[in-house]
């Protein structure tokens, strides 16, 4: 070929291909596809114009021949040819049109008609001709084109049919499904595992590249995130799950320990170093990809809730639940792992909304994540945001939520709050070490750190106290609303348990109202035993803190607890013994100065009676509580003697501890418990019968004496229906299996027959033989 002739395009060399980036090749491919689409679009437009012109001519109203003015044939030919678009026609077509134009019949009939000029029309052909006369216009839509199909004929007439032009992706998917259907199950499984392995290797390669150098490879996050839209129906569900979890772990590793804020216009205008610019690009890309990832997770969850199916149909509706569970799990992990990073409040809103989900697995997952977050939060900001969202959820659902949602609030780490001045004066003052005493106990490095960070620590303490105060106000607002508006709700036990935990932090101004509400709840009789015990515990927590200054005698709460003790048993209420032991500690031990001897004796006797019909773990806890009572009130040892003190008879059925004459009875139950099968019950009963000495022959070991009653109840728990501690099995001697052999006088003949029966092992005849002699 010459210099101006056509030259063949040379293939690029391997070295040149290496220099060409992937992005450039993708851009070239996109440009080529765009050009092809634009040329095809132009051709379709020109064909549409041609058809429109022909249809316009066919729709003109025909006129009789006599009304036309005769014109020269040359002028008629020119006018008709000018009305047609001849620029896109071939010469043969033009010649045919000129030949047809010379005939007069061509002007008086439609172009679409191919019948003879003077032929008669049949009635059956009229609807077909009517349909053929209708102009066929393509429906103009930006997204999809319509393809006109053959019409359907019924009694009413012809029904036009059309369909959307299928996309290339859908056609590829159909081809894949057809190819899969042609394979047998073994080949399908093999093909799926092969594809899945390729995807896994791709995910692993991208993930390792990002973790190796996050700053330079931040753009690969986009490639990995694009795999969330996997369209291959064979592996789509598994690949999407793997990508979700992989991205979650990558973000947990590469996210910095600070919050990234957007740059201002002034900061963008300033020239910075190359390293700073690179860091800014990394932070901007990280935040944007993290946002898109969270949006994908949220969209997956929303599709499951709304039961929407995407147009690609790569994932069936039945698989959306599994995808949504993985997405929620990723959200929960990010909630706990990244409380300091961007969009944490958005994650909190999503997770808290699913705490009340009917699906048990999802609900438990979200509640556990919130519980972990509240336990590990040391700054208080994440806890405050979470409690606000929970408060909004409770209010929006009109208090119709699961108790587990409110139980998560028990994990709050609130120990100090901002106290008002009037309550500061009433609260007992604590003794603090002065600066010199602190300095003596510190090392040189600690002194230096203390000197530098003294101001920062003060600011942190102040901010923590203020956030804790605000959090606690919201928590009490939730509790008080439920106490006021939903007293018969299933949330009441959770509310009472929460009030019992945080009661020492309530302001003094609420004490009277709260105590009156608790008393009315206890006396109403609508509460279960566990709920009433929580009410009593809450009331005494209030009175043991700042409530010491109040002159209130909670005699009615003592009476109710004394009455409730005999309702407990070895069945389902055995688990309520923890609350009972806590109540006894707060009501009797910590308020020893306000408790009379008669009240202490009555509780000691009733607890001994209760120990006879509860499980061993509860019995150990009750006996330990009795030991504490004897040590707290030394005069209670009169119940260990048989002598009566004063007048009257003990009235065990009376529910008033002050008037049941407990001094006129004794703890005879300890002699029964001394022969209990549980070793710890035996030990504690013998210890109490000896007078509960602190040292000597009847004293307990140091380890046991230091354990609290509630701790002993947990240590020797029998909730798994096993012996705790385990009981030794019977001896392995065969003779001891038959006590009749040791205690009965047998003649030598019968004795020999039984020995012969015992020597035969694993044979049913020997067992029948032994049973026969046992009956004799």
Quick take:
By secondary structure, the chain is an all-alpha fold. The chain has helices spanning 14-19, 22-58, 73-83, 91-101, 126-133, 168-181, 185-212, 220-226, 236-254, 265-269, 274-306, 320-337, 344-353, 360-376, 381-396, 403-407, 421-426, 435-440, 444-452, 454-485, 492-502, 511-524, 529-544, 555-564, 577-589, 597-610, 616-632, 669-673, 679-689, 702-706, 709-715, 739-743, 748-759, 764-775; strands spanning 146-153, 158-164. Helix 9 packs parallel to helix 12 (320-337), helix 20 packs antiparallel against helix 21 and helix 22 (511-524) packs antiparallel against helix 23 (529-544).
Keywords:
34 helices, disordered C terminus, mainly alpha, 776 residues, two-stranded antiparallel sheet
Q: Please compute the radius of gyration using only Cα atoms.
A: 45 Å
Helix-and-strand structural type = mainly alpha
Strand content: under 5%
Please state the average pLDDT score. Answer: 78
Our count of helices gives: 34
The termini sit apart by 124 Å
Label the overall shape: elongated
Order of strands side by side in the largest beta sheet? 1-2
Low-confidence stretches are 1-6, 65-71, 104-125, 421-432, 735-748, 756-776
Number of strands: 2
Helix content: 55-70%
Major sheet description: 2 strands, antiparallel
InterPro entries: ARM-type_fold (IPR016024), CCAAT-binding_factor (IPR005612), Noc3_N (IPR011501), Nucleolar_cplx-assoc_3 (IPR016903)
Domain CCAAT-binding factor: 532-685
GO molecular function, one term: chromatin binding
Main location: nucleus
């Amino acid at each position: 070929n010459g210099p101006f002739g056509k030259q063949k395009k040379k293939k690029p060399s391997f070295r040149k291909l290496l220099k060409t980036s992937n992005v450039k090749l993708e851009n070239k491919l996109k440009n080529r596809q765009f050009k092809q689409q634009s040329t095809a679009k132009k051709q379709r437009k020109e064909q549409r114009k041609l058809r429109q012109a022909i249809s316009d001519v066919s729709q003109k109203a025909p006129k009789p021949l006599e009304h036309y003015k005769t014109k020269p044939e040359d002028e008629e030919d020119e006018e008709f040819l000018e009305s047609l678009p001849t620029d896109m026609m071939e010469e043969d077509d033009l010649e045919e049109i000129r030949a047809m134009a010379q005939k007069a019949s061509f002007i008086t009939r439609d172009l679409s008609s191919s019948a003879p000029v003077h032929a008669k029309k049949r009635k059956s052909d009229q609807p077909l001709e009517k349909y053929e006369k209708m102009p066929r216009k393509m429906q103009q839509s930006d997204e999809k084109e319509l393809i006109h199909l053959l019409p359907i004929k019924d009694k009413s007439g012809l029904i036009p049919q059309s369909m959307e032009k299928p996309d290339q992706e859908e056609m590829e998917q159909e081809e894949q499904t057809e190819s899969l259907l042609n394979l047998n199950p073994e080949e399908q499984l093999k093909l799926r595992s092969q594809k899945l392995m390729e995807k896994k290797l791709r995910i692993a390669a991208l993930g390792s590249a990002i973790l190796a150098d996050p700053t330079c490879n931040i753009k690969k996050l986009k490639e990995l995130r694009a795999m969330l839209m996997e369209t291959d129906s064979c592996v789509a569900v598994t690949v999407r799950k793997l990508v979700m979890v992989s991205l979650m772990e990558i973000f947990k590793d590469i996210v910095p320990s600070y919050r990234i804020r957007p740059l201002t216009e002034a900061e963008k205008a300033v020239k910075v170093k190359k390293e700073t610019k690179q860091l800014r690009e990394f932070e901007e890309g990280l935040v944007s990809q993290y946002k898109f990832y969270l949006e994908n997770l949220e969209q997956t969850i929303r599709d499951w809730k709304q039961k929407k199916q995407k147009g690609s149909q790569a994932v069936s509706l039945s698989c959306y639940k599994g995808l949504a569970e993985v997405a929620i799990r990723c959200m929960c992990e990010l909630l706990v792992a990244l409380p300091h990073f961007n969009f944490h409040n958005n994650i909190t809103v999503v997770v808290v909304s699913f705490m009340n989900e009917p699906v048990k697995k999802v609900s438990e997952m979200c509640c556990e994540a919130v519980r972990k977050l509240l336990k590990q939060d040391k700054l208080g900001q994440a806890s405050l945001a979470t409690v606000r969202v929970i408060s909004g959820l409770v209010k929006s659902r009109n208090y119709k939520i699961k108790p587990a949602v409110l139980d998560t609030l028990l994990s709050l780490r609130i120990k100090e709050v901002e106290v008002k001045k009037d309550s500061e004066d009433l609260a007992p003052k604590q003794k603090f070490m002065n600066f010199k005493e602190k300095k003596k106990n510190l090392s040189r490095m600690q002194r230096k750190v203390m000197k530098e960070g003294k101001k920062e620590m003060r600011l942190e303490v102040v901010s923590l106290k203020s956030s804790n105060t605000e959090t606690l106000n919201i928590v009490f607002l939730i509790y008080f609303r439920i106490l006021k508006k939903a007293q018969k709700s299933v949330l009441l036990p959770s509310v009472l348990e929460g009030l019992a935990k945080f009661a020492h932090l309530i302001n003094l101004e609420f004490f009277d109202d709260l105590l009156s509400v608790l008393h009315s709840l206890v006396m109403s009789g609508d509460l279960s035993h566990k709920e009433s015990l929580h009410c009593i515990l809450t009331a005494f927590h209030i009175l043991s803190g700042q409530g010491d200054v109040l002159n209130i005698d909670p005699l009615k709460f003592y009476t109710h607890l004394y009455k409730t003790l005999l309702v407990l048993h070895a069945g389902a209420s055995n688990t309520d013994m923890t609350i009972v032991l806590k109540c006894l500690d707060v009501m009797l031990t910590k308020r020893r100065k306000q408790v009379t001897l008669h009240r202490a004796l009555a509780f000691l006797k009733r607890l001994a009676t209760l120990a006879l019909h509860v499980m061993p773990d509860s019995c150990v806890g009750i006996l330990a509580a009795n030991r504490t009572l004897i040590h707290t009130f030394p005069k209670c040892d009169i119940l260990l003697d048989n002598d009566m003190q004063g007048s009257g008879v003990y009235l065990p059925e009376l529910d008033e501890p002050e008037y049941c004459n407990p001094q006129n009875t004794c703890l005879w139950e300890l002699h029964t418990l001394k022969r209990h099968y549980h070793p710890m019950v035996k030990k504690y009963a013998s210890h109490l019968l000896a007078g509960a000495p602190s040292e000597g022959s009847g004293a307990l070991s140091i380890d046991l004496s230091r354990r609290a009653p509630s701790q002993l109840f947990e240590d020797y728990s029998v909730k798994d229906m096993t012996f705790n501690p385990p009981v030794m099995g019977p001896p392995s001697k065969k003779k001891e299996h038959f006590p009749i052999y040791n205690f009965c006088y047998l003649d030598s003949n019968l004795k020999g027959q039984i020995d012969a029966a015992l020597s035969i092992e694993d044979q049913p005849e020997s067992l029948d033989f032994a049973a026969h002699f046992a009956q004799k």
